[in-house]
Design a protein that fits this description.
The chain is mainly α. About 55% of the residues lie in helices and about 0% in strands. The chain contains 4 helices and no strands. The protein is extended. The model has no long low-confidence stretch (mean pLDDT about 85).
Length: about 100
């Protein structure tokens, strides 16, 4: 698989639009860059042909466990809320376990 080449795109948007995009992206666990890249892809004729993202079997299992915990009221298992930096640090800590 070829490496994906990245470039910088500078755009001017209102502060309000930027803040809304950041908040929406953060809520979905993605970066604003990802959101912009997806929006740009909507202009591509091939965008309609792209396969939807499917979580890995491991992630599907984790999501099922989280849903079960929420339904059973086991929210003490959850960490947070985090700032983005704290969240990254928390995830890196989990990967070391």
């Amino acid at each position: 698989m070829a490496a994906v080449q990245k470039t910088t795109l500078t755009v001017q948007v209102s502060k309000k639009a930027k803040a809304r995009a950041q908040k929406a992206a953060r809520a979905r666990g993605v970066s604003v860059s990802f959101v912009v890249e997806e929006a740009l892809g909507a202009f591509d004729d091939k965008a309609a042909e792209q396969k939807p993202l499917v979580p890995s079997k491991k992630l599907q299992k984790i999501l099922r466990e989280v849903d079960r915990d929420i339904q059973e009221g086991n929210t003490h298992k959850f960490s947070g809320p985090f700032t983005p930096e704290e969240f990254e640090q928390h995830l890196r800590g989990l990967m070391k376990k």
